């Protein structure tokens, strides 16, 4: 980490001289000076040359006699000496020349003398004190001319975004330069009020100008720094992470306008630190909450440290997933992490994106998961891989990854916890049975939802109807994306849906389709595979008379409940019946440490689904909930994971917020899918890919719950081939969506589904718009959806996003 060179106070820089007459300057300094002070170079090699140009410079500094004084100061990339900034009469060219030549002999390489025009500070409002009565003597004093120095600290935040962290001010007499160390700092609001600026809109306008200007300067410095050679960076990964920008306030065209004096880091940060310490040491134990100037800097340092620690680590990842997971392999490669990918598809797209590719058919149903785990351990040892972690981002491979981690003695959640999370019935039963006579309360069972597995014959259905009232939800025991989840209103509909989902013999013929979904109410091949993989029931594809059917095989689960059959159907996937919970739906993406400590949580809101299905339609991040409700959801998610023993790791927990508190829908024992990683990275600056890899390597990341862009909100909708086939092939082709994404109008995330029509399928993509609040983001999204053709009668975006206001 580097800090910017110091430049003392002044105003609009108009001339400079460098020692030895070097015309070439450090690019970072050159760019900084050009952006900040609009420098006009005047190279001076001798006293005679200075005298020749003195009158011209004087006339340039004082056109029409508007300026009376000039400022002389020094600057440079690595100043070794500190010289006082001085003011001189613009007409006293002899004193100016003597001062300049007095400094030249002390300059080091690449240091320069800056000659600036003096700009008068905005004068304070004249306050007339009350006139005393005649019996009391009065004294008339002419108030001194005052000046304001504003110190703005800008930090490199997450995602290399400059963010203004704090502004403090100092007030002093205007006849001499105001130094950082000779005045107590105070807030911008206090200073403006003392100056007579009381209008809130005017205060906000001044602050906005300061923020935009300071962040623009930091961005210019970072851009110039990126163009430097490796040698110019002065060290590997060295960069400027914090910058101090000094301002004064003046009047331009009757408007209060900030003017840049110079760039410094140490002095501005010191002034902010003095201000914070001063407010923390008030009398009588009272304190004032103040924004920390160094917090973004500390976060940046911790983030850079995490990247440094993770660089060159080797991680075994099982399962590549679909093309929608491409960002994982690109991110890992960008961080310098060596991924050894295990994949059953020998032609996987990810084979060229990782350090090494291991083809292993973990879908082979002739072996159980334990045997597959032992085979993978043998492969790791044969290849002499030096692994720091083993994990899975793909839902169907999470149990296998946990088993391999255990055999290799690597960090990660225990396989038993991952199994519990993968089986929805077992998850709820575990929460209900986890009780203790000691705090913390409430027990995790308070968040459980009543449910019953569909056992042999009708016993599961009969038990469910005896204990749970309609409407009910029929869902697979294991699966993702709400595929195959249905709402049933009564007993007749329930039996009809179950017969179709469990594929009675008369309904086992499958229609070939490229889409995951249900054909005429029956699962097609792809969806059956999705339900069975990594669940408690396996599936083997068989050929019979040219038609494909499926044979169920049980997997070892080490749990009391085994695979369930319904109505004597031997090839039926396992399903459950659960109580239908009303309320708003939310996702909580949790980061838990090896001890189960909550490191971070990101809460998003989901829109209503299109019943009787439960496929996600719309979402918003951050949540609109109150802080108290936000905390309730986070606590429910964290306590549920701890009750299962599911830590460490990054997990996605789905809940509903009801009248009686949070209720757990399901726990996904892996990083949240769909758009969540992209949204969280964009809003909070936290990359869950890096965080997950770090935790599975035994590294605890330090994370912040505040956003990198604190006022940003994202609101988005899912687009599916079932509802948007025409638009996705015409007005909203992938190329058009990518163009809008790169132009900054939307965030476009390509997902696992198809553009072609197919019922109950996974979404093809997610598009989102940003705003300062949910209302603004929603309005932009509605406009985009109307133009692209996503807002239709069958998919009313106005309704689906109606709660995001």
Q: How many angstroms separate the termini?
A: 41 Å
Tell the overall outline. elongated
Give the domain tally. 6
CATH C-level label of the largest domain: Alpha Beta
Q: How large a portion of the residues is in β-strands, by DSSP E?
A: 15-25%
Strand order of the largest sheet: 27-26-23-24-25-28-30-29
Class by SSE composition: alpha+beta
Global Rg: 33 Å
CATH H-tier superfamily of the largest domain? ATP-grasp fold, B domain
In DSSP terms (H or I, runs of 4 or more residues), the helix count works out at 22
**Can you give the helix content as a percent range?**
25-40%
Architecture (CATH level 2) name of the largest domain:
2-Layer Sandwich
Give the beta-strand count.
Answer: 30
How are the SSEs placed, and which strands pair?
Elements lengths: L1 E2 L8 E7 L8 H11 L9 H15 L7 E7 L10 E4 L3 H12 L7 E6 L28 E12 L3 E13 L12 E2 H7 L5 H27 L13 E13 L2 E10 L1 H14 L15 H16 L3 E5 L7 H9 L3 E6 L12 E4 L9 H14 L6 E3 L6 H11 L6 H8 L1 H10 L17 E3 L5 H9 L4 E5 L9 E3 L2 H11 L16 E2 L2 E2 L1 H8 L4 E8 L2 E8 L20 E5 L4 E9 L5 E9 L11 E4 L5 H18 L4 E10 L2 E8 L7 H9 L3 H8 L17 E7 L1 H9 L4 H9 L4 E4 L14 E7 L2 H15 L8 H4 L5
Parallel strand pairs: 1-9, 11-12, 11-14, 12-13
Antiparallel strand pairs: 2-5, 3-4, 3-5, 6-7, 6-9, 7-8, 9-10, 15-22, 16-17, 16-22, 18-19, 20-21, 23-24, 23-26, 24-25, 25-28, 26-27, 28-30, 29-30
Helix pairs in contact: 1-5, 2-3, 9-10, 10-11
Protein name: ATP-grasp domain-containing protein
Keywords: ATP-binding, Nucleotide-binding
Organism: Leptobrachium leishanense
């Amino acid at each position: 980490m580097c800090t910017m060179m110091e430049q003392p106070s002044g105003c609009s820089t108009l001339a400079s001289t460098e020692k030895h007459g070097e015309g070439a300057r450090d690019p970072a300094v050159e760019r900084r000076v050009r952006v900040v002070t609009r420098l006009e170079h005047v190279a001076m090699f001798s006293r005679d040359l200075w005298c020749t140009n003195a009158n011209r410079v004087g006339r340039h500094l004082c056109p029409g006699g508007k300026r009376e004084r000039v400022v002389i100061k020094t600057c440079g990339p690595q100043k070794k000496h500190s010289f006082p900034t001085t003011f001189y009469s613009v007409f006293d060219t002899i004193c100016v020349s003597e001062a300049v030549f007095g400094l030249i002999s002390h300059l080091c390489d690449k240091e320069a003398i800056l000659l600036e025009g003096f700009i008068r500070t905005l004068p304070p409002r004249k306050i007339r004190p009350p006139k005393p009565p005649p019996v009391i003597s009065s004294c008339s004093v002419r108030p001194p001319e005052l000046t304001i120095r504003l110190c703005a600290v800008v930090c490199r935040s997450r995602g290399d975004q400059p963010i203004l962290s704090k502004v403090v001010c100092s007030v002093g007499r205007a006849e001499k330069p105001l130094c950082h160390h000779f005045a107590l700092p105070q807030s911008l609001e206090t200073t403006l009020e003392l100056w007579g600026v009381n209008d809130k809109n005017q205060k906000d306008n001044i602050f906005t100008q300061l923020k935009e200007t300071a962040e623009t300067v930091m961005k210019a410095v970072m851009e110039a720094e990126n163009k430097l050679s490796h040698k110019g960076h002065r060290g590997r990964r060295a960069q400027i992470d914090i910058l101090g920008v000094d301002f004064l306030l003046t009047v331009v065209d009757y408007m209060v306008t900030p003017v840049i004096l110079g760039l410094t880091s140490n002095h501005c940060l010191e002034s902010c630190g003095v201000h914070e310490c001063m407010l923390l040491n008030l009398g009588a134990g009272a304190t004032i909450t103040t924004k920390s100037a160094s917090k973004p800097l500390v976060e940046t340092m911790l983030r850079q440290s995490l990247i440094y620690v993770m660089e060159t680590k080797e991680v075994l990842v099982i399962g590549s997933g679909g093309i929608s997971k491409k960002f994982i392999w690109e991110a890992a490669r960008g961080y310098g992490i060596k991924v050894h990918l295990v994949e059953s598809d020998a032609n996987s797209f990810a084979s060229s994106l990782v350090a090494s590719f291991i083809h292993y058919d973990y879908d082979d149903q002739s072996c159980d998961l334990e045997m597959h785990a032992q085979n993978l351990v043998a492969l790791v040892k044969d290849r002499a891989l030096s692994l720091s972690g083993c994990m899975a981002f793909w839902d169907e491979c999470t149990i296998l990854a946990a088993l391999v981690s255990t055999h290799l003695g690597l960090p990660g959640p225990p396989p038993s916890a991952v199994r519990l999370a993968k089986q929805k019935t077992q998850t709820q039963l575990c929460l209900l049975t986890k009780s203790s006579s000691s705090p913390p309360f409430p027990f995790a069972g308070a968040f459980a939802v009543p449910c019953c597995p569909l056992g042999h014959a009708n016993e599961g259905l009969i038990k469910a109807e005896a204990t749970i009232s309609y409407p009910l939800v029929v869902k697979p025991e294991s699966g993702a994306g709400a595929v195959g989840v249905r709402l049933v209103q009564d007993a007749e509909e329930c039996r009809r849906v179950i017969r179709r989902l469990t594929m009675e013999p008369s309904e086992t013929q499958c229609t070939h389709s490229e889409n995951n979904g249900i054909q005429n109410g029956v699962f097609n091949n792809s969806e059956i595979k999705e339900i069975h993989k990594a669940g408690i029931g396996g599936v083997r594809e068989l050929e019979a008379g040219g038609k494909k059917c499926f044979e169920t095989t049980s997997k070892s689960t080490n749990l009391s409940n085994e695979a369930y059959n319904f109505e004597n159907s031997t090839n039926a996937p396992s399903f459950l019946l659960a109580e239908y919970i009303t309320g708003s739906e939310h996702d909580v993406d949790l980061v838990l440490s090896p001890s189960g400590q909550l490191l971070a949580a990101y809460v998003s809101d989901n829109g209503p689904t299109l019943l009787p299905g439960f496929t996600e339609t719309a979402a918003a991040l951050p949540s609109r909930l109150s802080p108290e409700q936000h905390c309730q959801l986070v606590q429910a998610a964290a306590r549920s994971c701890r009750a299962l023993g599911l830590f460490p790791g990054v997990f996605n927990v789905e809940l509903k917020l009801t009248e009686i508190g949070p209720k757990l829908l399901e726990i996904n024992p892996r990083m949240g899918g769909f758009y969540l990683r992209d949204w969280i990275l964009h809003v909070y600056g936290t990359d869950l890919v890096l965080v997950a890899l770090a935790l599975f390597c035994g590294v605890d990341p330090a994370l912040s719950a505040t956003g990198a862009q604190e006022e940003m909100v994202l609101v988005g909708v899912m687009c599916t081939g079932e509802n948007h086939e025409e638009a996705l092939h015409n007005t909203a082709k992938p190329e058009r969506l990518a163009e809008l994404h790169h132009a900054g109008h939307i965030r476009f995330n390509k997902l696992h589904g198809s553009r072609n029509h197919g019922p109950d399928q996974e979404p093809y993509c997610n598009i989102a718009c940003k705003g300062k609040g949910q209302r603004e983001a929603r309005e932009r999204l509605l406009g985009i959806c109307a133009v692209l053709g996503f807002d239709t009668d069958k998919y009313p975006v106005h309704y689906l996003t109606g709660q995001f206001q």
